[in-house]
């Protein structure tokens, strides 16, 4: 959502190298779009293996306390795959990102607590959760289907 106030905020900052001001102002929304597309595509790729066997993770999700696994396993598969597509194209960006955030927070719990791996085991999930939290709050920006249809969640 490249608003005038964001552009003004970028131009009013006191930069160590002021010559970069124009580059930062011009690139910030494009870089945000790249992050959204890459994060969504990575989530699709991660869910692709699960979508072929949506019940394959039933035992794993039950080991986390999500019963019945035959309900939660396909939900996990579909969330990763379809939320990734929605995030990548920027359609229903906030609810799709919220679903992805929830999945990632569960994986943080799984690695940190259940498997006892601590921060080292959960680090990647924490980073991905932070990325999806960003899109829960920001939405898809003007380079998204949400913006093209003129409606956001």
UniProtKB/TrEMBL annotation:
Main subcellular localisation: membrane
Report the Pfam families cross-referenced here: DoxX
Question: What compartments host this protein?
Answer: Cell membrane
Residue ranges crossing the lipid bilayer per the database entry: 70-89, 96-113, 125-141
**InterPro entries membership:** DoxX (IPR032808), DoxX-like_oxidoreductase (IPR051907)
Keyword Protein biosynthesis (UniProt):
no
Repeat among the record's keywords?
no
Q: Report membrane topology.
A: Multi-pass membrane protein
What the record says about family reads: Belongs to the DoxX family.
Q: What is this protein called?
A: Putative oxidoreductase
């Amino acid at each position: 959502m490249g608003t005038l106030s964001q552009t003004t905020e970028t131009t009013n900052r006191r930069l160590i190298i002021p010559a970069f001001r124009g580059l930062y102002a011009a690139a910030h929304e494009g870089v945000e779009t790249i992050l959204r597309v890459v994060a969504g595509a990575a989530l699709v790729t991660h869910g692709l293996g699960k979508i072929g066997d949506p019940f394959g993770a039933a035992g794993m999700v039950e080991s986390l306390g999500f019963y019945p696994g035959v309900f939660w396993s396909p939900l996990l598969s579909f969330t990763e795959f379809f939320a990734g597509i929605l995030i990548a194209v920027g359609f229903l960006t906030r609810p799709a990102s919220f679903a992805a955030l929830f999945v990632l927070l569960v994986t943080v719990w799984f690695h940190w607590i259940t498997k006892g791996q601590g921060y080292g085991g959960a680090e990647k999930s924490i980073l991905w959760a932070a990325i999806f939290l960003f899109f829960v709050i920001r939405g898809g920006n003007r380079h998204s289907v949400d913006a093209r249809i003129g409606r956001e969640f």
